[in-house]
Task: inverse folding
């Protein structure tokens, strides 16, 4: 299953030794006596989407938050663009499962909030925010408040906020789990376009096997208690197919089946 | 839509004042004047300046006390909500303050601080502060964790997280605490004037009762309630102005 990937050509200012945007080395994390992650190592190729997939409680979100710098690992190291992670940084942006929008602020201010915190001037940050609001398809809703939007639209706001700070790495924590099935499918298609058009690295946590296979360049399967990477799967042909045909593709179906076969024994 | 809620307010007032008028006309008690008698007394007192002089006296402890309670109360509440240590240190004091039978404690306050402004401000504060502090503290403690994480992930400093995330997120509950605290402060101000020294509006109430001028007594009580309602409305406007998106409105609006 594991196949070498075609390397990205347009990464000029990178140290030559790696085409990985993010590298996790020997990450261990315990909560009190509970061991969440043990000696986990994983590489995230630049410009690609890597899914972290596993049963609930397998530490996917913990790993994502450690990469984000929101949690400190007990041991091990995360490198982003070759530099060790000490905390949150401008090179990473987070998309939250529950959207994490500020209910007292309108869409424009919510999207511009990441820039606001960095001290970008009002007119400049609002211009940037408006551009990304249009890009995620929410033009005309700038003055709306989060409670006036549907779940799917709220997550688009969360996505626009993460895009507007122009980070290299986008960390997405089950971003589509709180939206309905049809919206989710639309999101997945949009995400594929985003991966193709934006030169960013995506790290995507999900518990849906189909979703992971549909959107990923690389799928890391985590097994729980304590978490480690049990398998890395790289769909080879799916990326070049039309989005409408992926779900009918034999490779897609085979991968979904084989992932389920390896996960089934861990689901109680 | 605005129209309908205005109409409902008017209807509500008419029902209340109508019931008052009817109860006064029966009469339920010799000591209970009708609505129109009370309003006539109110207009008379407003006209001859009695009311103005009284309010200058009453508003002093009220404004000082509510001001201190709001400022100190929100400050302490933030502190308690952010630090478990201060929670252990201060929360019990305010819970005791809230539960204390204040009228029974007033003689102690008078012994310690005399019969002047200080004691009255104390009474207002004891009434107003606990609910402001406790509401603020619990609101701050219940800030959604993902909002704080969001702030941190975009590299906000602790001060910015506090000012731009925690306080706005807590604002609905802080404001409801303020509303409760301010109304309690109004009660405290009148209580102080009835129990410590009869001055201001408390003096009108006590004096009118002693000479059986009941319309004047009820007019004074009515005026203080009116003032409290106006001030609470002002607080609501302030909240809407500061945190518009927090106001969800009603489905029927």
Result:
């Amino acid at each position: 299953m594991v196949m070498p990937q075609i390397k990205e050509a347009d990464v000029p200012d990178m140290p030559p030794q790696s085409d990985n945007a993010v590298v996790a080395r020997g990450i261990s994390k315990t909560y009190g006596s509970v061991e969440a992650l043990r000696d986990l190592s994983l590489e995230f190729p630049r410009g690609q989407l890597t899914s972290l997939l596993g049963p609930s409680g397998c530490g996917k979100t913990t790993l994502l938050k450690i990469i984000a710098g929101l949690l400190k690992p007990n041991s091990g190291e995360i490198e982003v663009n070759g530099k060790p992670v000490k905390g949150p940084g401008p090179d990473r942006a987070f998309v939250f499962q529950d959207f994490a929008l500020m209910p007292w602020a309108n869409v424009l201010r919510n999207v511009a909030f990441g820039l606001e915190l960095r001290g970008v001037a009002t007119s400049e940050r609002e211009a940037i925010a408006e551009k990304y609001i249009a890009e995620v398809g929410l033009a005309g809703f700038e003055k709306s408040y989060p409670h006036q939007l549907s779940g799917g639209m709220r997550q688009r706001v969360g996505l626009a906020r993460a895009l507007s700070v122009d980070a290299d790495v986008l960390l997405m924590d089950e971003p589509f789990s709180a939206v309905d099935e049809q919206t989710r499918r639309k999101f997945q298609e949009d995400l594929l376009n985003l991966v193709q058009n934006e030169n960013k690295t995506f790290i995507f946590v999900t518990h849906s096997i189909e979703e992971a296979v549909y959107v990923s360049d690389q799928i890391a399967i985590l097994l729980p208690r304590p978490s480690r990477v049990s398998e890395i799967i790289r769909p080879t042909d799916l990326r070049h197919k039309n989005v409408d045909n992926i779900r009918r593709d034999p490779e897609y179906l085979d991968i979904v089946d084989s992932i389920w076969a390896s996960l089934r024994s861990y689901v109680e | 839509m605005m129209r309908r809620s205005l109409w409902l307010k008017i209807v509500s007032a008419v029902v209340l004042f109508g019931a008052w008028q009817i109860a006064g006309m029966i009469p339920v008690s010799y000591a209970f004047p009708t609505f129109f008698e009370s309003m006539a007394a109110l207009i008379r007192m407003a006209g001859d300046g009695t009311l103005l002089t009284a309010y200058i006296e009453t508003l002093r402890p009220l404004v000082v006390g509510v001001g201190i309670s709001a400022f100190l109360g929100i400050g302490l509440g933030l502190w308690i909500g952010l630090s478990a240590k201060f929670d252990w240190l201060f929360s019990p004091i305010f819970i005791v303050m809230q539960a204390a039978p204040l009228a029974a404690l007033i003689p102690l306050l008078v012994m310690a601080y005399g019969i002047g402004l200080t004691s009255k401000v104390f009474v207002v504060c004891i009434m107003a502060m606990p609910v402001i502090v406790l509401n603020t503290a619990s609101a701050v403690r219940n800030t959604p964790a993902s909002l704080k994480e969001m702030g941190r992930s975009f590299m906000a400093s602790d001060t910015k997280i506090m000012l731009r995330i925690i306080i706005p997120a807590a604002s609905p509950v802080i404001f409801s605490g303020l509303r409760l605290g301010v109304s309690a402060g109004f009660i405290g101000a009148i209580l102080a004037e009835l129990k410590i020294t009869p001055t201001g509006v408390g003096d009108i109430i006590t004096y009118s009762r002693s000479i059986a001028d009941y319309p004047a007594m009820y007019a004074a009580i009515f005026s203080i309630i009116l003032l409290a309602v106006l001030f609470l409305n002002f607080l609501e406007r302030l909240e809407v102005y500061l945190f518009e998106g927090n106001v969800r409105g009603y489905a029927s609006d």
Notes: The longest helix of chain A spans residues 181-197. The radius of gyration of chain A is 18 Å.
